[in-house]
């Protein structure tokens, strides 16, 4: 205890012991356990770099920025030799048990304002299935289709781990084998005020916040999840976010391109819907693939067009990746020299004032440190990007209203079903925005992509009438 205390004194963080003598034995041990986790050297360098430094270490030379290359979606995948080759390789890998699914669900979902883990949020138009149920059913249906068990890693945080696990238990793992769902908690970082001092949340607790979705790399390694994948022979990890029910989790085309390209990390891109859409941009800088956030890319670059009038930086990043298991170990393992950088996020962090009273700040009062998974791309060998069709890949639930909200997501799910029905010759009535007027839904257990839907539909001896409440 003395040496631990001395370390905090030497690091200018002695205030964390201010109330120590007044605490119960239990509180004392809890605080000490928390303090043991803090890497004070790392914290000092983060404070120096992200809080006190006047120079911007991440400044980008935009004149050197080029759009990233990607495999564009062909007019028809089925008749495209390259895409069919990729599909075959991907299917073989999935059947051989080489693919695992991985959702990052440790975020706090503050924009949605839902008082539970985001994965519990009900998103589907007819059955009101939760995000977790949609993902589980997609994985279950792929397991059946390929005759293999597909392990699913679920990254939680210290805040939402217990309710997330309880939800899976209560729902009997949505039909998945319990042993195939592997939960782990992401790491934590201390939050600091604008003077670099660790924020005290209470007299016996420092403020610790999740280390960002990029924390998943070290989280997978520290928790042993990566060893479990190794044991099962999984070497391709299908990474997705908890807020996007359209995600095509088990996509043989994507897996095939990843394997064919001997890629350590592959990504899907979606063509930006409009120049200033708030997504990351896939670019190359000094020969390295990189994602530049919309907030870091001047508007003139976001709006730049080529000689055909097409957006130059069109490739939007939608947080869909395949990670090679060895690559995760290389970056996330303890012995690694190459680590993801941290970024600062200014936040309202509850604290206790100098008199020990709890305060909920109205405006940001400090920063938390986060890693971003896409920062791994420049470190990956032979990264590959393929294009995805937005309507079958991406409609996140981020905000309570407006763009990327439960309503837009529900509409996009209905539009997907209408498109699939149209392909098999069934017309659905739509409003002036192309959104079906009726609530319609297709379970991933019936089909999770257009090809499978057409096959499953054609196999039905009696076709159901498509009307409000239609559910297959
Ligand atoms: P977001 O950037 O949308 O953040 O996360 P968020 O915390 O969920 O939501 P807001 O910003 O507070 O509204 C994108 C994905 O990364 C995961 C989230 O769960 C989501 O799937 N994530 C984010 C983590 O797993 N851990 C983190 O520390 C941050």
Summarize the structure.
With 472 residues, the chain is α/β, with parallel strands linked by helices. The protein has helices at 2-10, 25-36, 40-52, 81-95, 131-146, 161-170, 216-223, 225-231, 252-260, 299-302, 325-332, 406-423, 450-459, and strands at 66-67, 99-104, 152-156, 181-185, 188-190, 192-193, 200-202, 205-206, 208-210, 236-241, 265-271, 280-285, 288-292, 315-324, 343-347, 351-352, 358-359, 366-370, 384-387, 440-441, 470-471.
Protein described:
By secondary structure, the chain is an alpha/beta fold. 29% of the residues lie in helices and 18% in strands. Strands 1, 2, 3, 4, 10, 11, 12, 13, 14 and 19 form a ten-stranded mixed beta sheet that branches. Helix 7 (216-223) crosses helix 11. It is globular, with a radius of gyration of 24 Å. The N and C termini lie far apart (61 Å). It binds uridine 5'-triphosphate. Uridine 5'-triphosphate binds next to loops.
State Rg: 24 Å
What does the overall shape look like?
A: globular
Note the total helix count.
13
> N- to C-terminal separation?
61 Å
- What is the structural class? alpha/beta
Q: Roughly what percent helix? A: 25-40%
Poorly predicted sequence stretches spanning 5 or more consecutive residues: none
User: Main sheet?
Assistant: 10 strands, mixed
How much β-strand is present in the residues? Answer: 15-25%
Give the averaged pLDDT, no decimals. Answer: 94
Bound ligand species: uridine 5'-triphosphate
Q: Please count the beta strands (DSSP E, at least 2 residues each).
A: 21
């Amino acid at each position: 205890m003395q040496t631990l205390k001395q370390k905090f004194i030497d690091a200018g963080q002695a205030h964390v012991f201010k109330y120590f003598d007044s605490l119960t034995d239990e509180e004392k041990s809890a605080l000490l356990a928390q303090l043991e986790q803090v890497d004070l050297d790392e914290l000092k360098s983060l404070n120096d770099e992200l809080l006190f430094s006047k120079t911007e270490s991440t400044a980008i030379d935009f004149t050197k920025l080029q759009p990233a290359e990607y495999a564009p979606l062909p007019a028809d995948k089925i008749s495209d030799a390259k895409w069919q080759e990729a599909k075959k390789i991907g299917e073989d890998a999935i059947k051989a048990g080489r693919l695992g699914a991985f959702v990052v669900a440790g975020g706090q979902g503050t924009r949605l304002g839902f008082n539970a883990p985001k994965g519990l949020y009900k998103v589907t138009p007819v059955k009101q299935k939760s995000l977790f149920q949609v993902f589980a059913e997609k994985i279950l249906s792929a397991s059946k289709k390929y005759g293999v068990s597909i392990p699913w890693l679920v990254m939680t945080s210290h805040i939402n781990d217990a309710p997330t696990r309880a939800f899976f238990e209560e729902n009997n793992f949505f039909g998945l084998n319990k042993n195939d769902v592997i939960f782990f908690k992401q790491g934590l970082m201390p939050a600091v005020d604008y003077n670099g001092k660790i924020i005290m949340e209470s007299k016996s607790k420092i403020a610790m916040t999740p280390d960002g979705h990029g924390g998943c790399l070290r989280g997978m390694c520290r928790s042993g999840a990566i060893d479990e994948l190794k044991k099962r022979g999984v070497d391709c990890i299908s990474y997705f976010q908890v807020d996007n029910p359209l995600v095509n989790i088990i996509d043989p085309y994507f897996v095939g391109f990843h394997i064919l390209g001997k890629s350590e990390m592959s990504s899907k891109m979606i063509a930006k819907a409009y120049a200033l859409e708030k997504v990351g941009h896939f670019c190359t800088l000094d020969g390295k693939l990189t994602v530049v956030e919309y907030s870091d890319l001047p508007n003139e670059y976001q709006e730049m067009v080529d000689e055909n009038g097409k957006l130059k930086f069109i490739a939007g990043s939608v947080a869909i990746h395949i990670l090679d298991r060895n690559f995760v170990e290389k970056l996330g393992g303890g012995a690694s020299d190459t680590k993801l950088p941290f970024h600062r996020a200014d936040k309202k962090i509850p604290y206790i004032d100098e008199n020990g009273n709890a305060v909920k700040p109205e405006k940001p009062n400090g920063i938390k440190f986060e890693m971003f998974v896409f920062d791994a791309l420049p470190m990956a060998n032979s990264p590959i990007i393929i294009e995805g069709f937005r309507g079958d890949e991406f409609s996140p639930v981020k905000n309570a209203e407006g763009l990327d909200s439960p309503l837009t997501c529900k509409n996009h799910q209905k539009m997907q079903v209408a498109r699939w029905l149209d392909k098999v010759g069934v017309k659905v009535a739509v409003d002036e925005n192309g959104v079906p007027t009726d609530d319609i839904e297709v379970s991933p257990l019936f089909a999770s992509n257009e090809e499978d839907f057409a096959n499953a539909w054609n196999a039905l001896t009696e076709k159901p009438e498509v009307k409000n409440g239609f559910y297959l």
